Structure formats: structure tokens, C-alpha cells
């Protein structure tokens, strides 16, 4: 991404045409001149006016719409910003963008460049930028709520509170170092400083001990469908997804790779994984499929172990691992059993064992209800989580390490305590983007669309 902040940039900031309205945004030092060139005047700040937009080369009217002028720094990007709200036809949008492109010093914005300028000019901190990105890509109501809380500064406020307490502790230690001989400086300033650091350490430790709920909500609750070949795993995936997402055949080993389907389950994000049948295979391609199936199931949040209920001996769960995710036993193909056996299976089903027929749909409503209840239990508390990315955790872990050292070194080593508190403060500053974030900026902004 270009880092020339003196450029004036423009882009379509609304959805692709055709649409009822198209919003074209211009930001940078030349925005006022460009607006005056296109309209013949500049509206009063922050007041929408009806205006004719003209081609600066021919003078021809392209369209009539609303124009707004936001002088910096009180604008979305912190720079001078002009906005045109036009009719959203393809020809209108193409003509306006082409006309803007003829103006000297004006160029098309790169993905995320408006937001990056807002960050550079202090209008957003890095956690708010990430919240905006998550809001754009939110697929469920729960993800939307979490992203909006981040955009409104949930983590930023927590980080600023932590940083204020660190500054307080550091001030005490530095007063002890710099003014030890002054009569009006208390003799023991290290103990209260370490008490503040210890309290802050415990607070950060509690924040980190949230079982990654924020990331799980942002990324989606992962449910792996596993089991022996021909148990009906792909049929179950298709039933839950309500579409033919996976190929279903009577041939064992049809599924070789992992198939992913993203669902909105009662407002919560769920990713279903259809995996290869787990067995001792001789074919090297199938062996790789089985290896991947085991790996993805082990990393999932829940495993549905599907077996053929009509078999005389039901295979045991081959993924049993005390350290792994919980496993539910799904007894499929109960439609092949006689009615008495079906009723017995349904009647005697316990939590974690669910009889179904992926062919007829019998028992599917019960399975989905159980699944939704389980996901709600796991993810609902995540809506109050403040950590939503691994980057957040890495910064807090660094701060925690520094605070641990600050509270355990001998109290006589004031300089070391002060340095550890500075390192902790620097780690918190990385969290909000105050320092040392250039290496992550391109990664964050590359997923933004043009116009944001």
C-alpha cells in the first residue's frame, strides 16, 4: 500500500452498481479543489446540498445528487473529505469516477486506504480498525454485536485503563530513583508500585483466561463430522446445510479432502467439516485424507462421530482423546431398523448420543436443537469478550511477562523494575497501535475493500 499521505484519493464507497444510491468519497488535501471543480462551489461544512456534478473537461452534467463537505480534522479520515451521493447506475458511477481520474493529483484509493488514514490521523486506534473489518465481514448477529463493541472501543478503553495504572506505578518507581534524597518524597514507593503492577497482572491474566471465546465467535464454532467410511457423514452435512455441498455415493472413501460449510445457526456462526472416513487405508491419497480428517477433528470445537446404526457391532470412537474436543455419537441410518428398534434407540438416547436418519430426516430436528443449545452455551459469553485476535493475546502475554518480572525481582533493583514496567506499557501500546505496528498494518488493511 502506498504510504504517501499527501495524495488525494477517491473511490466508490458504497456497494457495486446498479443500486439506488452510489456514494463516492474523496479524501486528502485536494478534496476542496476537486469538489469545487466538479460542482462549481463548495457546500457549507456538514450540510447536504443538491448539486449538479459536471465533467471538468467538457462541462457536461453527469448527474444531480447530494454533495457534502467535511473539512479536516473533523472528518472520518481526519483529512478534508468530500462526498457525493448520486444515482447508482453503472454509467453514472463510471462517468463520475472517470471524471475524478482526470483531475491532477487525484488517484483511486487502494483497499483500506480511507481507514488507514483514519488510523494514521488518530481517528481510530488499531483495535477499532479491526472491529470495523470484522463488522464488514460479520455473517451472524452475534458476530455483528461483537464487532460493533470492538469498533466502539471496548478493548481500547480496557487497554487505556491498564496503561493509566502502569503509568501510575512507573511514576512511583521513577520518583524513588530520581528523588531519593528529597525530604518530601516518601521512602517506600516501590511497594505501592509493585502492588499496582500485581493487581494489573492479575487483571490481564483473567482477561487472557477466556478460552479464546472472542476468536471462536469471530472465526465460527467448528464442528467436525467424522466416523468410519459409508456411515453417512456427507449425507448428514448436506442435510444440515440444506444443500448438496458434499458428494454422496455408496463407494467407501469418496470423501478424500475436508469440505467446509459455513452456517448461521440461530444467530451464531458454525463451520461444519465433512471429513474422510477414518479407517486403515492402503491408497496413499486416502491415507492423506484420513490424516487430514484426524487433524481437523482434533482441532475442532466439537466432533460428531457418525456410525451406521444398522450394523451389528457399532465401531468405537477412534478419536477418543481426554485432551481433545467433546465427541457426540450420532447413530445414523435408523430408517433401516424396524420400528421397534427405532423407537428404542430414540427412547434410550442420552446426551451425546443422537439417533438420526440423514436419508429421511428423522431425528435431525433434535440433533440441530442440541447443537444450537451447545453452541449458545459455548459462544454467548463471547459477546462480552474483548480479545478477538491472536495479536491481542500476544501483546497481553508480553505485558504479563514483563509485569511478572517487575513484581518478582528484588525491591532494591528499582531500575530493573522501572524498565519492566516500561516494557509492559510498550506491549499495551502495541495493542492499540501506538508503537511498533508497521509490520502488521498491511496484513490488517489488505482484506478491506476499496472505498473503506
Question: Could you explain the architecture of this structure?
Answer:
The protein has 15 helices and 12 strands. With about 450 residues, it is an alpha/beta fold. Mean pLDDT is about 85; it is low at about 250-255. The strands form 2 sheets. It has a 6-stranded mixed sheet with strand order 3-4-5-2-1-6. Strands 8-9-7-10-11-12 form a 6-stranded mixed sheet, sandwiched between helices. A hairpin with a 2-residue loop joins strand 8 and strand 9. It folds into 3 domains: about 10-120, Probable tRNA modification gtpase trme, domain 1 (Gyrase A, domain 2); about 130-210 and about 385-435, tRNA modification GTPase MnmE domain 2 (Four Helix Bundle (Hemerythrin (Met), subunit A), Up-down Bundle), CATH 1.20.120.430; about 215-380, P-loop containing nucleotide triphosphate hydrolases (Rossmann fold, 3-Layer(aba) Sandwich), CATH 3.40.50.300. Helices cover about 45% and strands about 15% of the residues. Helix 4 (about 125-135) packs antiparallel against helix 5 (about 140-150), helix 7 (about 190-210) packs antiparallel against helix 13 (about 390-410) and helix 13 packs antiparallel against helix 14.
Amino acid at each position: 500500500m502506498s504510504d504517501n499521505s499527501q495524495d488525494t484519493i477517491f473511490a466508490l464507497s458504497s456497494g457495486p452498481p446498479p443500486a439506488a444510491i452510489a456514494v463516492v468519497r474523496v479524501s486528502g488535501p485536494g478534496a476542496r479543489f476537486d469538489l469545487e471543480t466538479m460542482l462549481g462551489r463548495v457546500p457549507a461544512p456538514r450540510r447536504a446540498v443538491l448539486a449538479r456534478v459536471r465533467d471538468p473537461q467538457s462541462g457536461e452534467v453527469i448527474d444531480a445528487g447530494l454533495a457534502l463537505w467535511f473539512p479536516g480534522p473533523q472528518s472520518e479520515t481526519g483529512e478534508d473529505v468530500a462526498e457525493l451521493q448520486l444515482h447508482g447506475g453503472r454509467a453514472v458511477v463510471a462517468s463520475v469516477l472517470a471524471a475524478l481520474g482526470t483531475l491532477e493529483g487525484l488517484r483511486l484509493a487502494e483497499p483500506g486506504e480511507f481507514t488507514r488514514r483514519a488510523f494514521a490521523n488518530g481517528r481510530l486506534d488499531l483495535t477499532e480498525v479491526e472491529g470495523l473489518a470484522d463488522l464488514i465481514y460479520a455473517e451472524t448477529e452475534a458476530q455483528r454485536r461483537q464487532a460493533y463493541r470492538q469498533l466502539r472501543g471496548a478493548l481500547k478503553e480496557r487497554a487505556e485503563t491498564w496503561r493509566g495504572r502502569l503509568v501510575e506505578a512507573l511514576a512511583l518507581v521513577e520518583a524513588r530513583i530520581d528523588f531519593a534524597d528529597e525530604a518530601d518524597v516518601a521512602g517506600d514507593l516501590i511497594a505501592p508500585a509493585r502492588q499496582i503492577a500485581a493487581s494489573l497482572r492479575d487483571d490481564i491474566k483473567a482477561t487472557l483466561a477466556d478460552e479464546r471465546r472472542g476468536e471462536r465467535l469471530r472465526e465460527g464454532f467448528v464442528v467436525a463430522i467424522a466416523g468410519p467410511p459409508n456411515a453417512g457423514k456427507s449425507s448428514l452435512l448436506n442435510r444440515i446445510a440444506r444443500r448438496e455441498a458434499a458428494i454422496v455415493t455408496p463407494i467407501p472413501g469418496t470423501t478424500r479432502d475436508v469440505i467446509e460449510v459455513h452456517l448461521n445457526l440461530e444467530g451464531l456462526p458454525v463451520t461444519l467439516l465433512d471429513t474422510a472416513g477414518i479407517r486403515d487405508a492402503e491408497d496413499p491419497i486416502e491415507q492423506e485424507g484420513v490424516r487430514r480428517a484426524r487433524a481437523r477433528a482434533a482441532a475442532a470445537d466439537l466432533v460428531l462421530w457418525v456410525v451406521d446404526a444398522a450394523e451389528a457391532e457399532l465401531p468405537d470412537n477412534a478419536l477418543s482423546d481426554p485432551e481433545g474436543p467433546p465427541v457426540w455419537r450420532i447413530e445414523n441410518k435408523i430408517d433401516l431398523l424396524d420400528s421397534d428398534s427405532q423407537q428404542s434407540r430414540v427412547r434410550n438416547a442420552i446426551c451425546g448420543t443422537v439417533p438420526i436418519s440423514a436419508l429421511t430426516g428423522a431425528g435431525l430436528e433434535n440433533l440441530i436443537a442440541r447443537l444450537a443449545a451447545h453452541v449458545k452455551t459455548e459462544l454467548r459469553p463471547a459477546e462480552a469478550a474483548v480479545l478477538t485476535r491472536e495479536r491481542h493475546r500476544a501483546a497481553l502475554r508480553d505485558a504479563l511477562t514483563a509485569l511478572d518480572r517487575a513484581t518478582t525481582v528484588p525491591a532494591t533493583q528499582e531500575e530493573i523494575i522501572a524498565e519492566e514496567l516500561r516494557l509492559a506499557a510498550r506491549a499495551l501500546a502495541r495493542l492499540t497501535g501506538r508503537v511498533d505496528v508497521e509490520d502488521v498494518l498491511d496484513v490488517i488493511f489488505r482484506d478491506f475493500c476499496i472505498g473503506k
